[in-house]
């Protein structure tokens, strides 16, 4: 089996886990018996299996979409119907480089956005009869797209969040020609007199009606920022967990989970007192919450 490029739990059945692979397949696993996948969707289009770089399924869990790396001159969005386990077709005229992210809308089952190394963010209505009519908007981030998500601003208006490979958060309205807001590492670190190491922006999420961004440093230090307002506010320090750069983050009601290049998965929870390294101790004086393993 080749490299895994995406993992996601089912919406409808918490026992089902999906993963995409560079071997051109999306597999579905039942966590109660993981010897063999319970379903397999193969990216065989026009007689050729294409390596899958990312995937997602819609909110009704009826349609599956996977993106591919550049194949000759095209990068593909491939679609399946879960009910018949048959490839429905694809789009291949809207991206000119590897597709890095696919995100269905959390409430509108036919709305899909994709991002790629070509810097484009495309929004589709997959209920339309062909690719030209399906394409609703194209946004140019002017840098390779690393992560996409559907978010809302402080007024509850929908936005598209894009994190680029040069570690910049862009917040877009679908109908606007340029981002409404741009947040870079300098915007976050300039709140402090001393240098604050920020090497990577892991993700940004909406949690309890506030928008947060999580950053990481090669030392293993993680920082969580409230970026709801124009001036970012440091709200949590994640220290003494990782020994190398944190890469991924997950939030829920009680914990923050991070994974790093050191191979560790760290689970963080709020504590009143905890030891922190010197750089985190300096930052802690400016934060409202200190978190440790």
Automatic annotation (TrEMBL):
<dbReference type="InterPro" id="IPR039328">
    <property type="entry name" value="WDR89"/>
</dbReference>
<keyword id="KW-0677">Repeat</keyword>
<keyword id="KW-0853">WD repeat</keyword>
<dbReference type="InterPro" id="IPR036322">
    <property type="entry name" value="WD40_repeat_dom_sf"/>
</dbReference>
<dbReference type="InterPro" id="IPR015943">
    <property type="entry name" value="WD40/YVTN_repeat-like_dom_sf"/>
</dbReference>
<dbReference type="InterPro" id="IPR001680">
    <property type="entry name" value="WD40_rpt"/>
</dbReference>
<protein>
    <recommendedName>
        <fullName>WD repeat-containing protein 89</fullName>
    </recommendedName>
</protein>
<feature type="repeat" description="WD">
    <location>
        <begin position="92"/>
        <end position="126"/>
    </location>
</feature>
<dbReference type="Pfam" id="PF00400">
    <property type="entry name" value="WD40"/>
</dbReference>
